Amino acid sequence: MKYKRIFGIVLDSVGTGAAPDAAKFGDVGSDTLGHVGDFYDGKLAIPNLQKLGISNLRDQPIKGVAPAEKPLAYFGKMQEVSAGKDSMDGHWEMMGLPVKHALALFPDGFPDEIIDKLKAFSGRDVIVNKPYSGTDVIHDYGEEQMKTGALIVYTSGDSVLQIAAHEDVIPLTELYKICDYARSLVNEPPYVVGRIIARPYVGPDKDHFTRTANRKDFTLEPTGKTDMDRLQDAGYEVIGIGKINDIFSGHGITRGFHNESNHDGMDHVFNNMKDDFTGFSFTNLVDFDAMYGHRRNPKGFGAALMEFDQQLGEVLANLKDDDLLLITADHGNDPGFRGTDHTREFVPLLAYSPSFTQVGQSLGIRSPFSDFGATILDNFGVKNVVGTSFLDELK
After folding, report:
1. Where are the domains of the chain?
2. Residues annotated in a binding site for Mn(2+)
3. Which CATH fold would you assign to the domain 5-101+222-393?
4. Annotation: binding site
5. Is 271 exposed, middle or buried (0-12, 13-18, 19+ CB in 10 A)?
């Protein structure tokens, strides 16, 4: 069957167990969904994901979430082949553009030639310049930033350059301008960085600082055509919700919507479901990652999953027979694991349409992530370059 609309939802960082190459990344033993379930000790209430088959795709069910006897969805896992485990790598690979070469990392901070150019362009000093937790860095240096007007520049285990500033000290327009300039500094070897991230925060003092929804990602321009470009070139609508526009630098998107939160992102999905369009709606829900994974907060992570599951119920109730829903993730970020960085994991894959006439079956392990995009292109009769479609397996 061919579908008129495909709704893809990426649960940012919701991994489902260590990938075969996890040792390369120091992530053996990671399992985002499993450890969140263990933390909730059988009380993780995700009935809609459960009936779709979220535990069926795992070697061991999520604690308290039994495999569905008759899963509604076709279910499986996807294994990444890209060189890194960043959001950009995962999303690009989903859309037929695996990242083959590792991006630059900065475990000792950024070199003087980059920092000096940031100082000169912004007219501001730079403080920190080393790997740091995003919430810890504003707690430890936010008051200094407010007093001096300096830029808090830091990184993580991923290929990112992040700049934090209090919104009352450095206006958003100025912060975005500085980040856009920083983007121009790290597009060519030897310093090719995946993302520049503006990290504004508010609050009166270190015990009350909070990061705001005005975060903005300045991502490396896609190095080639993506499946979104191919869909758009073929005349289909491509709707980007949440970080999608930033991750693809606006390429291949006909309409884009910014998310204030996961809840807000799902509201955008509901609104798009009311539209009479033909094409692909692509959503990223980042709170799992930004709010709970990096902060190693399994309680908050599970609460966000349960809230998503409630909204998922409304999505399922309003899907039309010629709609297809695809749910996956871009990497793991295990809140029960050591450190604060992304974790190299399998990601879940769930495919559902009200038109299915059979009980959901296993799609196995799909690799690369590009099988996701290949299936979407296959549905719309557009030739794919990377990946193998599983469209014909959906009955």
Report:
1. 5-101+222-393, 112-219
2. 12, 289, 294, 330-331, 342
3. Alkaline Phosphatase, subunit A (3.40.720)
4. 12, 289, 294, 330-331, 342
5. exposed
Mean of the per-residue pLDDT values for the chain? 97
Neighbours of 79 (CB within 10 A): 17
* 172 CA to centre of own chain: 23
Report the CATH number of the 112-219 domain.
3.30.70.1250
Read off the pLDDT of residues 38-71 as tens digits, 9 standing for 90 and up: 999 999 999 999 999 999 999 999 999 999 999 9
On the CB side of 61, how many CA atoms lie within 13 Å of its CA?
17
Write the pLDDT tens digit of every residue in 240-269. Answer: 999 999 999 999 999 999 999 999 999 999
User: How large is the average pLDDT for residues 368-383?
Assistant: 98
pTM score, whole prediction:
0.90
* CA dist., res. 68 & res. 352, Å (int): 14
